[in-house]
Design brief:
Elements lengths: L12 H12 L17 E2 L29 H11 L6 E7 L4 E5 L12 H12 L6 E6 L5 E4 L8 H13 L10 E8 L40 H15 L3 E8 L9 E7 L3 H9 L4 H12 L4 H14 L23 H11 L5 H6 L2 E2 L19 E8 L2 E10 L2 E10 L4 H13 L7
Parallel strand pairs: 1-8, 5-6, 6-7
Antiparallel strand pairs: 2-3, 2-12, 4-5, 4-8, 9-10, 10-11, 11-12
Length: 441
């Protein structure tokens, strides 16, 4: 087994979303337009009017770029002294808002990033989809009187939504129109071989943090542990729900990659929490399922290989140092991922120039206060001043984020593959980066 990730990944999805809503809404920019237009369909319910397209990400040219040479010898010396003999297993990069590389240790050496991989997925999703984007689960009526349930991986999908779908299907006469109504329902789902990224260790797949990635995922396909056959569980829940409402249901499965018939009618849809809440679930609480869904939705493909290729192209377009970067999944549980600390520092710097940069920053855990950083650096000058993403798998510890200082932000990435007491080392590195007198402007 590769290992268990942050314990918070197994917490309540609904509770995390509700908490995130209150914390993030104050920090994000005004609501922006949705990237996708509403489909041309016939619907019983009114569809929201399509909004304007998203503002484009400013081109890399003219914005601060991460420099290649270290420009703050005093901080560099402190960094080397802090890691000492463990320098070979560390990659650490520190930059300021002008793109100056203040200090760097093995910054171009590819490392296993663990959940720091989520910083890529959330940046990509935020840019491609916008902060108000929602994942939809939809009930369609087909021309033969049957129904089809489609989804986009809403991590908060639960029994109340299923009950509403069942009531609507029965309320339109089911598929037979005669009591007791027989509802013939198709569930559109991904093929079984695509439920887990290939690089996830088989033992991890039994835990909640390694639950399968499917489009119709009741409570993110996890109860206390992973649900190993989500369509089977969904079928049982649908049969129970429809039965409680006086009907019967006949469930079949179809490929989610097959297009809907052109004459399908949308009866009802249930929307997830908005994108900025989902970002917080992925970054603050390090929820693997959400990060994987965001990567796929942003890429417009649930084929993981294709989604990774599209994300890689987008990252390259941002002018980031791509040498050594390898994307195997969206969450970081796959040990085939490779990132460099310079790449992550450059990504943080780049996203700070993004039209939705505040939403990105607001999705992070906060040192000593929130998420996977809530128990770290409590009572130190770092508390409330470092917004970051953690990562933990066996032998790997990573923390990357934005450190607020009196001289402006510092962008920091620290990845260890085999260090002892990594949290203490990272804390000391952050304290040195916080000392702005070491690197005068």
């Amino acid at each position: 087994m590769a290992c268990k990730l942050e314990a918070s990944e197994m917490g309540s999805i609904r509770g995390s979303l509700q908490a995130a809503a209150g914390l993030i809404t104050l920090a994000v920019l005004p609501a922006a337009a949705l990237a996708q237009q509403a489909p041309a369909i016939t619907a019983y319910a009114l569809e929201p009017a399509p909004l304007a397209t998203l503002p484009p990400l400013p081109p890399p040219l003219g914005l601060p770029q991460l420099q290649a040479q270290v420009s703050c010898p005093a901080l560099q010396q402190r960094l080397l002294a802090t890691v000492g003999s463990q320098a070979p297993v560390w990659s650490i990069s520190i930059a300021d808002g002008q793109g100056r590389l203040l200090a760097d240790l093995n910054g171009t050496r590819p490392r296993i990033p663990a959940s720091n991989q989520k910083l890529l997925s959330t940046a990509y999703a935020l840019d491609r989809l916008g902060p108000d984007y929602r994942l939809n689960t939809q009930l369609w009526r087909l021309s033969d009187g049957s129904f089809r349930l489609t989804g986009e991986g809403d991590p908060d999908l639960a029994l109340p939504q299923l009950q509403r779908f069942a009531k609507l299907a029965l309320g339109t006469g089911g598929s037979s129109g005669e009591p007791p109504s027989l509802v013939r329902l198709q569930i559109a789902e991904e093929p079984r071989q695509a439920w887990w990224p290939q690089g996830w260790h088989p033992d991890d797949r039994y835990y909640a943090y390694g639950a399968p990635i499917t489009r119709l995922a009741i409570t993110s396909n996890a109860i206390h542990d992973a649900v190993m056959n989500p369509p089977s569980r969904l079928q049982a829940l649908l049969q129970k729900t429809v039965g409680q409402q006086g009907g019967k249901v006949q469930v079949s499965q179809v490929s989610s990659r097959a297009p809907l018939p052109g004459d399908a009618v949308l009866l009802h849809q249930e929307a997830s929490a908005p994108m900025h809440n989902l970002l917080s679930l992925a970054n603050t609480e390090s929820h693997n399922f959400t990060a994987e869904v965001l990567l796929r939705q942003a890429a417009g493909s649930w084929d993981l290989g294709e989604a990774a290729q599209r994300q890689t192209l987008w990252l390259g377009e941002q002018g980031l140092p791509m040498q050594g970067v390898r994307i195997a999944d969206g969450s970081g549980l796959d040990r085939a991922n490779r990132l460099t600390s310079r790449f992550l520092t450059a990504l943080l710097l780049r996203m700070d120039q993004h039209p939705y940069g505040r939403a990105y920053l607001a999705s992070m855990a906060v040192a000593g206060q929130r998420g996977t950083l809530r128990n770290l650096y409590v009572g130190t000058p770092l508390q409330g001043q470092f917004f970051g993403k953690t990562g933990t798998i066996s032998g790997v510890r990573s923390i990357s984020g934005v450190l607020l200082t009196s001289a402006g932000p510092r962008y920091v990435s620290a990845i260890s593959n085999g260090a002892s007491s990594p949290n203490d080392t990272i804390g000391r590195v952050l304290r040195q980066a916080q000392n702005t007198q070491l690197c005068p402007l």
